[in-house]
Amino acid sequence: MDSEDEFDTFVQNEILESSSSDNGDDLYTAAHIVGEVNDNEPNRRGSIEGHRVLDRDRQSGHSRLFQDYFSDDPTYGPDHFRRRFRMRRHVFVRIMNAVEEHDDYFVQKRNAAGTLGLSCLQKVVAAFRMIAYGVAADATDDYVRIGESTTLESLRRFATAVVEVFGPEYMRLPNEQDTARLLAIGESRGFPGMLGSIDCMHWTWKNCPVAWKGVFRGHKKESTVILEAVASKDLWIWHAFFGMPGSHNDINVLQRSPIFARLAEGEGPQVIYNINGNDYTMGYYLADGIYPSWATFVKTIPEPQGNKKKYFAKAQEACRKDVERAFGVLQARFAIIRQPARVWDEETLAVIMNACVIMHNMIVEDEGIDEDDFNYDDMGEKVKISHARTPELDEFIQNYKNIQDKETHTQLQADLIEHLWQHHPDLYKNIIVE
Q1: Which residues of the chain have pLDDT under 50?
Q2: SS3 of 47-108
Q3: CA distance to 224, 247, 335, per residue, from 221 (Å)
Q4: Residues near 184 by beta carbon (within 8 Å), at least 6 away in sequence
Q5: How far apart are CA 416 and CA 425, in angstroms?
Q6: What three-state secondary structure class fits 191?
Q7: Alpha-carbon 16 to chain mean position
Q8: pLDDT tens digits for range 331-341
């Protein structure tokens, strides 16, 4: 036998060994050697001659999944469901039904041979396991019976459908009723006019393209994408602005954020309240020291002198932790945003982050909040909310100047120091003032 015949025999043996293996890449390489795959044709693994097709038994996967969590007498009860899916079953079913109705991709279909494909339940559970546990795409295959590429496609479509269906309701800006409620919460905590607390969170991007690493790498020495958020005491996230590269700081993000766009345009509710005998017409957010001294921010006092300022600084720092708690709960519920992101494009990152924020708010709404400390009876007398007309250019510019007014910031801080000391001396009893 000449050397050419020996080589052909060797290649055929390699193909036979590869066909009995689970590694499709080896089969693909061997097929290329003997010319069974045309380099000019698309890479469709399922069309390769000799490629092993897995019989995943999808129907048994669906039946087992349904029996474990969704039947009338499930194997795993409500407590197990809440822990593994991060929400109660009726919330999950609501999301799944809405996603199936919105995107035909999740509707179960038959192929040309009449075989049923994956059910909506399998696709949604696979996508949600990636979001909740942060696992790789193929980690759900052995239980849900779904391939890696299908899981990734389900994840993208699921997150997109959640944003499109539930975004208008659960990522809305505060309306008049919401604003009145936020003001009542703030006043009960000693901060009249407070609408929440603001801060930024970094999400590490493991698969950031090499060409972009310099832009997305900041003080954390790794590529990150920034989420700016406003949260209230009940951990509801009222504002989410995601996508700024990690090389920016909170001030750079603020300059590009639309958080004060409605206020400058006169479209949002205008708040009128009184502190220490002075009237104010704009709500404010509690912020840390990096934020600018604007009329819409109340910051702590570094190295405060005197009991009043020490008491205010500790109270402000205690309430400002609302947004930090919201970030912690968001990452604890959805491990995909706690771990380094393995997605390759920024658009998918944004869709996943927004979907997580929406589902977080849905859980907050479903599980309720403690309203015992809030009095809403006389909010109509304490707060006046009215819609302003759309301003002209000069008024628009003046509105932004009012937002960035440093004198108002200083006066507001001084009034809050006195207000806390006079009207809420026992509100923060655990704070020791020397």
Answers
A1: 1, 7, 10-11, 14-39, 41-42, 371-374, 376-388
A2: HCCCCCCCCCCHHHHHHHHHHHHCCCCCCCCHHHHHHHHCCCHHHHHHHHHHHHHHCHHHCC
A3: 9, 9, 21
A4: 374, 375, 376, 379, 383
A5: 12
A6: coil
A7: 48
A8: 999 999 999 99
